[in-house]
């Protein structure tokens, strides 16, 4: 049993015995054995003198002590509960402050946060998203698309460039909320295998600059020096074939797709026996505004206008060559391009460069009134296609000197690595068995492959026209609606 350390009070019984008891206090301590003996003796004396005290003063003193002890017990329980509640509040405040300091130190150093999912969820719950400073920025991204299933993650095919980028956002703790809450937009959706040196995305990311609660920094001219080094931080979390090469603060009405004024593509190829002059003459016919439905894959559910403007076209040799073979490139620039448009244009130009089709074929395919149906032909390979740059007005991408140096070193090392891989295939080519004109000693007769015969493009089977596709889609939608009703 515990009693408080407050001053004692004395009570005199009917027989003259003095009884000691304590007033209510906060802190308590055990009663000594001596006090226990005194108290019990006083109680016994009071009870034995009950006949001389008909008023029952002894019994009243015993009940008073019991009531006093019970009140002390209740008070101790109340103080213990209050103490536990205060300790819990202090520990929560300390954990929250430590979490904020840890996240800030992680972002400043550019290192990754390696936490368990449970730890990340606790940290996200402890800091409300509206209290975190953020700003609207655009990122310029390079990626080598050979191993990816396109840029967009919406096709549910992994890996994709977009999914890898958002994984880096989460690892570096730069993403506030989720993809739906960050006002995300992208300039283009490149296909499987297509690369880029200038893709652009825009979204809200965590900022080092302090902003009022619930507001984001949208002034693109503020805080360039004191801001996070987004390029360095993200590149440490991205795979080797994806790199952020610059960032820029942008206004709140910026949209990576609709704010883009021009996109430029490059397509690399070996010259071999192609007629570059004929290909250049044919390619110049793409300049201007035309209906390119015969040079794309039609998506009638989402695209209803197939008119696009091409502002630049050029066929030119590159500085690279290998064993006498010259590397060349198509360069095309326009405000926007359709699905598979560039690869379809290149495929037709290759036919013209090989001499199996005439230059006038371009005019015929661009005239959708005389040629409403697209002839069937294979697209050019996606590997040599590169989205070189996306152009915007009044947007200047920046990169710190340290991050720029790291990028140059990384690109040089990757280039040397791929050149080493090329050397391995060249060595295999040298070790191939020599070709001989001797008759085969095998009993089976080898069948020689017949040379492929080119079928004129305009005489090939055609795909359904836009009107036919649209009518078919409309009928399907009507059938679906009737079934649901």
UniProtKB/TrEMBL annotation:
It comes from the Eukaryota. Residues 62-96 form a coiled coil. Keywords: Coiled coil, Isomerase, tRNA processing. The keyword tRNA-binding does not apply. It comes from Microthlaspi erraticum. Pfam families: PseudoU_synth_1. One of its GO terms (cellular component) is cytoplasm. Belongs to the tRNA pseudouridine synthase TruA family. PANTHER family: PSEUDOURIDYLATE SYNTHASE, TRNA PSEUDOURIDINE(38_39) SYNTHASE. InterPro entries: PsdUridine_synth_cat_dom_sf, PsdUridine_synth_TruA, PsdUridine_synth_TruA_a/b_dom, PsdUridine_synth_TruA_C, Pus3-like, TruA/RsuA/RluB/E/F_N. Residues 42-62, 446-485 are annotated as: Disordered. This is Pseudouridine synthase I TruA alpha/beta domain-containing protein. The keyword Ligase does not apply. Residues 466-479 have a biased composition (Basic and acidic residues). One of its GO terms (molecular function) is pseudouridine synthase activity. GO terms for biological process: mRNA pseudouridine synthesis; tRNA pseudouridine synthesis. Residues 284-393 form the Pseudouridine synthase I TruA alpha/beta domain.
